[in-house]
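Request from the bench team (R.T.):
"We need a structural guess for the complex before ordering more pyridoxal-5'-phosphate. Sequence and SMILES attached. Just send the tokens back."

Command: build protein-pyridoxal-5'-phosphate structure.
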Amino acid sequence: MATGAGAHGGTPAGVGSALAPNYHPLPVTVATAEGAWVTDTAGRRYLDLLSAYSALNFGHRHPALVAAAHAQLDRLTLTSRAFDHELLEPFAQALAGLVGPLLAGRSHLVLPMNTGAEAVETAIKASRKWGYEVRGVPADRATIVVAEGNFHGRTTTVVSFSTDPDARRGFGPYTPGFVTVPYGDADAVARAVDATTVAVLLEPVQGEQGVVVPPDDYLPAVRRVCDEAGVLLVADEIQSGLGRTGSTLACERWDVRPDLVTLGKALGGGIVPVSAVVGRADVLEVLTPGTHGSTFGGNPLACAVGLAVVDLLTPGTLQARARTVGEHLAGRLDVLLDRGLLHGVRTVGLWAGLDVAPGLTGGPASGRELCERLLARGVLAKDTHGATVRLAPPLTVEVPDLDHALDELTTALTTP
Ligand SMILES: *Cc1c(COP(=O)(O)O)cnc(C)c1O
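Reply to R.T.: structure attached below.
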């Protein structure tokens, strides 16, 4: 398996690169990884505090996930949904078993896709079709209420309701049918809901926005608004779900049961893209044969890995670990906040958003600069929206390793 450094040339992105410039990565070329640690092509080791935006919640190359993938690679990798395979129904049963009890309604279905954006698109399509066929919304008039600062993916429809100019500008004409309200304001949701509304689509915690946690009464109040109006609550848990916040779904934290949930990222165990919509059977039933699909959705390799992911989450120990290690992380970050080394800190489970302090002597001028300093100190993290850095270590991270990274963070905040 191991190929040497630069076996394929390794031209860095930039001058002479054949890559489209839609990313600005930190200057590190990763060669191998195990658990929470990655090694670059020069043999330097780094602790991974990004975890591929929570796609690596179980760490790199978790043995159970790699074993499941290897076993499936030797049997069957793709059938398309034109034919059935042995793991499709077991995967759906297992995921419905894990997540269904956390949702509204009594009976639940799973619709497997690949990427997160596809799961969101699927939830939008299901909500609209349900709105026309069940709620009786006039043809082509359906609206979905969304929140400012959202991140739901990169497709043309999804960026149509982004409020991030970089994500949106230049990609019109935009898909109509979305009404944007401030995040964290349930009264604004109530005012936006009318006879054309089919769903309210929200992230229970806005990850991309910098781990923004809403007020405690927000999601329960939105749930009540949805119940009173008879519209769907769709929770995008692609980043917040599957253990990150200390529970299987972030919605559990507020005892809120969404009608549909989108999952992705960690569902593929850091091995293959696996996403899904899990939700009320009476809603997902509107997607009859021919109305929606995906060539790769629910493929055997994806189901093998997805099943192993569900197995890892079923005992609840990783979720508990995210809570306890997360409390430790929050405690240490609060010290940095109290010392004035950070401007803001938001934590939930094993997930944190840090805002760099402007004008701090020797401090980083931006989130990017902090990440560059961390990189030089053997810690991988990624900035978002200028001044913010998100920390999302694998849920399996060892506490001494995390402490080491936080020591490096402390130094990086004051030492160029
Ligand atoms: C990452 C993410 C997506 C998009 O997932 P992709 O796999 O990149 O398409 C959608 N919603 C949320 C909340 C995400 O964090």
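Two things stood out. The two ends are 38 Å apart (CA to CA). Confidence is low (pLDDT under 50) at residues 1-7.
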